[in-house]
Design goal:
single chain; 126 residues; mainly beta; seven-stranded mixed β-sheet; four-stranded antiparallel β-sheet; 11 strands
Length: 126
């Protein structure tokens, strides 16, 4: 069992930066590939970024490529999402999730993730 807790969300102005954190408790965090998803009001949850357990490979959605960066620190059981040049369309609840599958498009499917956090709200004002 893995418990995930996100933090770092908040209200930020257009063009600003924010760093989200997700800390895991339970067993074998470094066995899992980790990802961030987001869900805006009235929309489906969508894939944002993923990092494999070695941190050797990452994958991003087209909408955040070049603006967001995912990283992890296995010693701290944590995964991070650095978000730069934020836009109003980035407003959403952001969730971290854990999976044992690696590959595309599998990484982008919510059904392939075994564990989820409760989410943290990010609001970008214009």
């Amino acid at each position: 069992q893995v418990q995930l807790v996100e933090s770092g969300g908040g209200l930020i102005q257009y063009g600003g930066s924010l760093r989200l954190s997700c800390t895991a408790s339970g067993h074998s965090f470094n066995m899992y590939h980790m990802a961030w998803f987001r869900q805006a009001p009235g929309k489906e949850r969508e894939f944002v970024a993923a990092v494999d357990w070695t941190f050797a490979n990452t994958h991003y959605s087209d909408s955040v490529t070049g603006r967001f960066a995912i990283s992890r620190d296995n010693a701290k059981n944590s995964v991070y999402l650095q978000m730069n040049r934020l836009r109003t369309e980035d407003t959403a609840i952001y969730y971290c999730a854990a999976t044992t599958l690696w590959g595309t498009p599998e990484l982008t499917f919510t059904t392939n993730y075994r564990y989820w956090g409760q989410g943290t709200q990010v609001t970008v004002s214009s």
